[in-house]
Amino acid sequence: MAQQDFEHFKQEIKDWLDSHPEEYDRFVVEVNDKSAIGLYKVFKVGMKLAPKLMRRYQTECHGDLADERQMQDYAADADTAKLLVDEFHNIDKDSIVPAMLAWLYYGKCYETMVNQLEAEANNPRNNFIEQKIAAIMIRVVIKSSIRNKMRTKEDWESFKREKKAIEEGNVMESCIEELESVNEVITEIPTNTEQSLRLRDYLLGDKETLLEKIKLRVSTQHTGTDLARLYFALQEEQLISHCDVTTFHKLLGNELPNCDLKSVRNLQIAIKKLNDSTNKGKIKDCGIERRYINEWRSYLTQAD
Length: 304
Description:
The chain has 304 residues and is mostly helical. The chain folds into two domains: 3-151, no CATH class; 191-301. The protein has helices at residues 3-19, 21-32, 37-49, 51-60, 68-72, 80-89, 97-106, 109-121, 128-147, 153-168, 171-180, 191-194, 207-218, 224-236, 245-255, 264-274, 288-301. Helix 1 (3-19) packs across helix 7 and helix 10 runs antiparallel to helix 11. The longest helix is centred in the middle third of the chain and has 20 residues, at 128-147.
């Protein structure tokens, strides 16, 4: 599926989500149910739309033969994407495909799968092999989410902290600690100036082309860490001027009203993590983050 077609299809899913809140909520309740009935329905859809993949899994991963490295190499059938699109457009009232796609693209699908699998891994009624397979699947889900750029390591660390705080009854303490980790004060933009502010006013160079590039990529990559990488790339290439983090987040949200951007706090925390210990805006020149920021820089500056 071409990128433009994918973006159009993703917007169709978002439109369905906005107009079918009750159907989506029912689906979410099912996939989060302890009986895992909703996840079983998702598995059945997978059997229908990607039979070759499912047969390979059943052939290679039955009994105690599950192997994480092998499963990471699995790919959907060649026609799965087309079948999903067709199923979405030619649905009957009992189909879970629209809700499932909305959950996969906009919901907490990975977190739900990890929670359900973790429950199985810790279930004393399961034997060792069953617990081991659940543990393997947890790693597969997390690594796949990062590889597909749907989640980041920071997202999973945040999820782990949140989950631990809930389980230990320390939600308030955790929230206070998180607030203390943010140096920049969140300021509200006065209502009477909101309409006049535009992100292009802060961009340098070919503003329109640059803005379109930003909007295209952010529409699919908009975690706090994604936006932090973009923010630093713009600064390092001197493509943005006099735009603080809060304003940047606000104006980016204005440009992409249908995009589920993470909160400004997520962006601020991500920026703090990317800063070195001097906290002067200089990114560490080692590790995978430098590569991701450089990818953003190349994308923003390459000629069309």
